[in-house]
Design goal:
- It contains 18 helices and 9 strands.
- It has 2 domains: 318 residues, Metal-dependent hydrolases (TIM Barrel); 42 residues, no CATH class.
């Protein structure tokens, strides 16, 4: 009996030591998430993310710190139906600025690598904007520069809607009457202006022709702020192998998206069955807003037990990271969660406190500490610095 008890104690102690080691590695890493939609949630639901929003959102200021987030790029987003997208973008930026003004000891907006590392040394979250959709600059390069001056450090060239100068993945694959595909001459000017400013060109959401046009024009490394692997989940929002290789050749980085529908190729089938079950509610919601994100968010919050069963295992997210690392190397992959912009993430990834679970999974997969540091944030920091003005 004594041997059994002693063996149990040894096992418990070994487990605790292992858990502490994982937490130390996680805490030492500079954790960067390139895509979080809490600002839109705050605008839409009249919330402030420096309050306790547990149970309401996937993000708040306290939970960002609990998850070990050092650098957060806050998405500035509105859909293609917004009448005044530039004004709306500025309202979302105002939301973050207000939180920063109230919490200068916890979070600060940074303009460059030097300021970013200073914030981390001071144990503050380094904050920047990522404008999700080129429609928000309203075809005006001066507005693009103004958004840069407010702290925008990347712009996703399109959301699901195309602009007058770039076509989206959604429309390139699903719209038959497009007058053109890819970047037109003004679109190429936008990319060049972003290179000049030091604003990262984000190729998440863009169509394949737009992607290849960008790669032929840009003089700086690009990012995919929240995209996953097409070969593992064949949706238009994910990147094909030749695109992944092109990003690596360019010196860029692909920040893997956590959305279940971009991770698990069988998720949509399960999700459709869920929607059929709740068809009456879905149809009434679509009369208010036809976009999928609207009715999906409502139904997923209303039926949490059913939704939990839809979620893929965490291992499937790790497979996307591992796929990119094996295809082009560990230097070209990172994390772009899309928290508060998604209605479903893999099991265990419930909110922004969940990042240590990813660290553990990567270490258990056999990645070294140095490789984990790169994935958690080091790769993005390299690309960020490479885009800065000299």
């Amino acid at each position: 009996m004594k041997k059994i008890i002693l063996s149990a104690i040894v096992c418990i102690l070994s487990f605790l030591v292992h858990a502490q080691n994982i937490q130390r590695i996680h805490d030492k890493a500079i954790l960067v998430d390139t895509h979080n939609d809490i600002l839109e949630q705050c605008i839409g639901k009249h919330l402030s993310f420096d309050q306790d929003l547990k149970g309401k959102t996937q993000t708040d200021l306290v939970r960002l710190k609990q998850g070990g987030v050092d650098v957060q790029l806050f998405s500035v987003w509105c859909d293609g139906h917004q009448a005044n997208p530039y004004a709306f973008a500025n309202a979302e930026m105002d939301t973050l600025d207000a939180v920063i003004n109230r919490n200068p000891d916890k979070i600060v907006k940074v303009a460059n690598s030097k300021a970013l590392h200073k914030a981390i040394r001071q144990h503050k979250i380094a904050a920047m904007f990522g404008v999700e959709g080129g429609h928000m600059m309203e075809d005006d390069l001066n507005k693009l520069e103004t958004m840069y001056n407010r702290g925008t450090r990347y712009m996703t060239l399109t959301w699901n809607n195309s602009t007058s100068w770039a076509t989206s993945a959604f429309e390139e694959t699903g719209k038959k009457d497009l007058t053109h595909k890819g970047l037109n001459d003004f679109g190429k000017q936008v990319v060049k202006k972003m290179n000049e400013l030091g604003m990262l060109v984000d190729i998440s959401h863009v169509g394949e022709q737009t992607f290849w046009d960008v790669m032929s024009v840009t003089t700086k490394p690009v990012i995919a702020s929240h995209s996953s692997v097409y070969n593992l989940c064949n949706v238009p929002r994910n990147l094909k192998d030749d695109q992944i290789k092109a990003v690596a050749k360019n010196g860029g980085v692909i920040q893997v998206n956590f959305y279940s529908g971009f991770i698990d190729s069988t998720f949509d089938k399960r999700s459709i069955a869920f929607e059929v079950k709740h068809k009456a509610e879905k149809d009434s919601l679509q009369k208010i807003n036809p976009e999928r994100y609207y009715y999906e968010e409502y139904l997923f919050h209303k039926y949490p037990d059913e939704v939990k069963a839809l979620r893929p295992p965490l291992s499937m997210l790790i497979e996307h990271i591992d796929y990119i690392a094996k295809l082009v190397g560990v230097d070209y992959v990172g994390l772009g969660s899309d928290f508060d912009g998604i209605s479903s993430a893999p099991q265990q990834l419930d909110d922004v406190t969940s990042y240590p679970i990813i660290t553990k999974a990567l270490l258990d997969k056999g990645y070294s500490k140095k490789e984990v540091y790169k994935i958690l944030g080091g790769n993005f920091l390299r690309v960020f610095k490479a885009n800065e003005k000299k």
